[in-house]
Amino acid sequence: MVQSDSETKTRILETAIVLFSARWYSSVSIAEICREAGLSNGVFYRYFRNKEALVIHILEDVIERIGVALEGTSGNTLSERLQSMSARIVGFSADNPELVTVFREGQYRYFEYERRLTEMYKRILSKVLGRPAGIPEYLVAIGGLRFAAVRSALQGARVSIPALASIVANGAFPALSWDGNRIFNIVITPPKISFGESSRERLMKAGKRLFGERGFHDVNIHEITDAAGLSVGAFYKYFDSKESFFREQITSAGHEIRYFISQNMSPGLNRLEEELQGIFLFGVYLSLDHWCYNIAREGEFVSLPTVKEYYESFRNGYLKMGTEGFDPAAVDSDPAYIDSAIEFFMGISHYFGMEVAFDESPHNVRAIVEGIGDYLIHGLNGRS
């Protein structure tokens, strides 16, 4: 049976999405896509100039699909519209895990598509609110929801749409307040500078810089050892492969971030102030060392199990904080409320980190964190 041009193009796209979602983009070749699709290599070039053009086509399609899904947001009241929007954001990731996986690598490699998606989300959120949505509104509503949705769809995190919608609409800490002087007027101890580094430390330092600047796939072991001033044999004394070395980089990045925040966290803060100071300190750390963020982000496409452990370590830290400041009725009414809140908070930090790491630290960081603090008390309902 002869396929139409539309059917053939769809076949290429569907095959590419399956392959790209299973492995990182750089490791999949055009020949492999065509082989899996049962087509000749020449057929591919009738529809796409190269692999990059194919990926960009997929990114454009994902943005359009998310836009269509969110345009269906409805409700007579703000609470109803926020509930509808929350359900659609979480539902899209649950229904399209492969597309979301491909887009997450695409947004990392072609950041302009993340910016386009962010602006689209802001337009939708502005319509829902009936007023312009700025960075704090975006981070609290969309950032928290996006992260929770992705973690649920791709990494099995437990989330509840009603719980997420409740946090967006009504806040997470209605009984707490915060003091900006306690949060921001602090003396920050920078990360340690190591002198007399061991060979292993030199390799880790060189690898972090190279992976952070160029990405996993574009860096080879010879370049790492040359940058460290060591032999290839020295590399294999400590690491079995580039993959195991990168996994160690992910684990190390998580440890360094958590250590920096814990060492600089002020004593005596309430639960909300801890959250806000943690977000602030995360931004400070990334302004000093944004390679950590790049490594953790790319790790999703190189070693997802290691990245799951990376996020689980942060999650465990949240669990140790307990439930101080949460609305007891909200916690008691939904067994997934605490899990949802943790994913939501990590999402705010994640997308705040993206602002810092890729936009070279927004000038009004304090104002953004203060805005987040207000919304975590009152929700978007209370600040409409």
Descriptors for this entry?
Arc Repressor Mutant, subunit A, Tetracycline Repressor, domain 2, 384 residues, single chain, flat, 75% helix, mainly alpha
Structure description:
The chain has 384 residues and is an all-alpha fold. Among the domains are: 1-48, Arc Repressor Mutant, subunit A (Orthogonal Bundle); 180-382, Tetracycline Repressor, domain 2 (Orthogonal Bundle). Helix content is 75%, strand content 0%. It has 20 helices and no strands. Helix 16 crosses helix 17 (304-320). The radius of gyration is 22 Å and the shape is flat.
Percent of residues in helices: over 70%
Count all strands and give the number.
0
Corresponding CATH architecture of the domain at 180-382: Orthogonal Bundle
Cα shape: flat
CATH class of the domain at 180-382: Mainly Alpha
Briefly characterize the structure:
Among the domains are: 1-48, Arc Repressor Mutant, subunit A (Orthogonal Bundle); 180-382, Orthogonal Bundle (Tetracycline Repressor, domain 2). Helix content is 75%, strand content 0%.
Task: Describe how the helices and strands are arranged.
Elements (H helix, E strand, L loop, with lengths): L4 H18 L7 H8 L3 H7 L3 H21 L6 H18 L1 H13 L1 H19 L5 H21 L5 H10 L9 H5 L14 H16 L6 H8 L3 H7 L3 H23 L6 H18 L2 H12 L1 H17 L7 H6 L3 H23 L5 H18 L2
